[in-house]
Amino acid sequence: MRDDRPRTNDAGNGREPDYRFTLANERTFLAWLRTALALDAAGLAVAHLLPELVVPGAREAVALALVLLGAVVAVSGYRRWRAYQRAMRRDEPLPPTRLPGILMAALTGLAVLTLALLLAGPGLRP
Question: In the chain, what are the domain boundaries?
Answer without folding.
Answer: 15-120
